[in-house]
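Example record

One chain of 145 residues, shown exactly as stored in the release files.
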Amino acid sequence: THHVAIVTSTAGNLEPRLVGGKNRCSGRVEVLHGDKWGTVCDQYFSLDAAGVVCEQLQCGAVASTPGGAHFGEGTGPVWKENYRCLGNESRLADCPVSAWDQISCSHRNDAGLICSDESWSLRLSNGGSRCDGRVEVYHNGSWGR
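Predicted structure tokens for this chain:
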């Protein structure tokens, strides 16, 4: 049994970065809490959270989310948080967070992210599943119809 506490992201600035990839839009996911950079556990890094990070970094849409320290093991803390993004947030700090104190996560579980690095991409929004909805276009750093 896991105990989950839902809190709003108010501590620190929660700025993400991608480290160790081929370009600025791929790498190990690291988040700044206050003045300390730490990695994100791959067990609870959702596609919606990945999409928010890609958008925040102006890197297009999610191409893939390799786990298991695909981009090498980080240093510092491993943040044990589940970013409960809906996918329409423009910053990771806008996503509610679930704290998972009882999960076992080490740098072997560092989340990775590869964004499309395109100036545009498509997504479906407000549908009943991931396969239907209104078509939206990502262009110049924002989503629109």
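Notes: The first strand starts at residue 5 and ends at 7.
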